[in-house]
Amino acid sequence: MAVSRAKKESLLAGYEEVMASAEHAFVIGFKGISVGQVTELRRRIRAKGGHYVVIKNRLARRAVVGKPLAMVQEHFSGPTAVVFSLTDPVPLAKVLTEFAKEAPVLEFKAGLVEGQPIAANQVEEIASLPGREALIAKLLFLLQSPITRFVRVLAAAGPQRLATVLDQVAKKKG
Known about the structure:
Blueprint: H1 5-21, E1 24-29, H2 35-47, E2 51-55, H3 57-63, E3 80-85, H4 89-102, E4 107-113, E5 116-119, H5 123-127, H6 132-173
């Protein structure tokens, strides 16, 4: 069925809007996946704050010109969808890799993380990373740890012992 020029322009405008906002995106092939499976995949993606868009390849190649997804435009061939998030790519990567185990016909073509292109095989590596919140918590713990230890030493040793230890350290370095 032929698509009218007005409809194509409308699709192109929609794709441009989607592509402009996507810093984290995964280009996937969905040939051989049933409608029920796609519906389930969309539900899981939405639950993680992501979006799933089926792309018309020719229009998608035009829409990504000058946008970060232009770096992976050669992967817009065959039945193609773009899964993207405006926040954290890790939950999406986890959803996609889990779903790929259930539906092995799901094909990872390429991706974009923090505006940088990634290969299809790196999606699983991203899925194995902890989420953004977990990484921030670890960073805060690591930053707080030396200060906490120092305060504990101060409390346990007392000011006299601290002065002695600092004097010994100064003599050792000097």
